[in-house]
Amino acid sequence: MPKQVDHDERREAIARALWRVVEQRGVAHLTLREVAKEAGISHGALQHYFASREAMLSFAMDLAWEQKTLRVHRGFQALGDQPHPRDVLRVMLTEMLPLHTDARAASRISAAYVLEALHNENIHARARDDIAQGRVVFEQLIRQAIADGHISPTRDPVAETNLLLALTGFTTLLELDVVEPQDALTAIDQHLGRLFTTNDLGTGHEGAAVDDA
Amino acid sequence: MPKQVDHDERREAIARALWRVVEQRGVAHLTLREVAKEAGISHGALQHYFASREAMLSFAMDLAWEQKTLRVHRGFQALGDQPHPRDVLRVMLTEMLPLHTDARAASRISAAYVLEALHNENIHARARDDIAQGRVVFEQLIRQAIADGHISPTRDPVAETNLLLALTGFTTLLELDVVEPQDALTAIDQHLGRLFTTNDLGTGHEGAAVDDA
């Protein structure tokens, strides 16, 4: 189906143009007109692919989500065959933060998408579903880690999941250079280290390890 | 100086119109033209008060910041004469989240401001300074709480400050209805409860105490 492939490639090229507009000029410039100009095609040709700004933004968000998933899977591979659940959560969480160029572009698209969601019911529903699905994966991992004795059973899996997801608030601190990437990672490692402190289950030596992470 | 007062009142009325545009229609509609229309004045009259979109947005941000400060001070008054530092930090943190209408408007202006900062050096510098100053206050409170024995001296004040500020990531989870306000508060209280767990001051059981909060 070469035709379909061409179509998909064109859509992806347009999404990348959209990405550059957001990355370089900001969400205020995110219009069909500016994206067509950046992609080097006519406004009409762009509308052939995306009927509206909303459709265009949703596709860019899909692309950002896909690429984040790829980065997370690469991160998992680097952890080897039997990764510690703390390291799995660390990869999932840190790939949501603008700690390197690819993740930064995705993070900005995502921020634009969330702002758009506040005034657009369709986008709100989709953004909510995407994040709620991601949240379920985090909570399952935490529940499993509790069941496997990696996290104390006294921890509340719902609250711990919410706290981990809330740490995506590092995005703003990193984007504004209020916190350095290394300091964000240090703080996240201390948080995860404490979450995975199980010496109240009897070993008695993991408390000290918390800050070595 | 009645003239100055009129001028200030006019600026505030314009800022409120701007606020409504962001709140109801979104940051994509935040232009001098739309704000003039919402404020019921001409584009030229608006430019008498704000020469640019940037100046207008900065003023709205000042107003949001001022109102947040007022809410925080009201929160402090409710804590009485000798508030526990945990409760002080709780007020400061929760007033940054969109947990009620006023805070939601401020939070949206702030999100718009941060997105704008990514592509505007002046706004970036100001947003950075504002947040960095707030960060200093958080860190001072945490250092004092460690000195006063409310927080274990084994805690790293820099990392703990960064973690607390990062919890503003609840903003997105609340705005998208992924997490309910009560669940956000529960998670924040568990985090603060553990931070202020001090029975590890010599007992040698910090792991076990962590989860009692």
Mind explaining what this structure looks like?
- Two copies of one chain form a homodimer.
- Chain A has eleven helices and no strands.
- Chain A is mainly α.
- Chain A has two domains: 1-51, Arc Repressor Mutant, subunit A (Orthogonal Bundle); 54-212, Tetracycline Repressor, domain 2 (Orthogonal Bundle).
- In chain A, helix 5 runs antiparallel to helix 10 and helix 7 crosses helix 8 (157-166).
- Chains A and B meet through helix 6, helix 7, helix 8, helix 9 and helix 10 of A and helix 6, helix 7, helix 8, helix 9 and helix 10 of B.
Helix content of chain A: over 70%
Low-confidence stretches of chain A: 200-213
Radius of gyration of chain A: 20 Å
Which two chains share the most extensive interface? Answer: A-B, 60 and 57 residues
Q: Kindly state the number of beta strands of chain A.
A: 0
Oligomer: homodimer
Derived from helix and strand composition plus strand pairing, the structural class of chain A reads mainly alpha
Proportion of beta-strand residues of chain A: under 5%
CATH fold label of the largest domain in chain A: Tetracycline Repressor, domain 2
Number of DSSP helical runs of chain A: 11
Mean pLDDT of chain A: 87
What's the number of structural domains of chain A?
2
Main CATH class of the largest domain in chain A = Mainly Alpha
Q: What does the largest sheet of chain A look like?
A: none
> What is the global morphology of chain A?
elongated
By CATH's scheme, which homologous superfamily of the largest domain in chain A applies? Tetracycline Repressor, domain 2
Distance N to C terminus of chain A = 50 Å
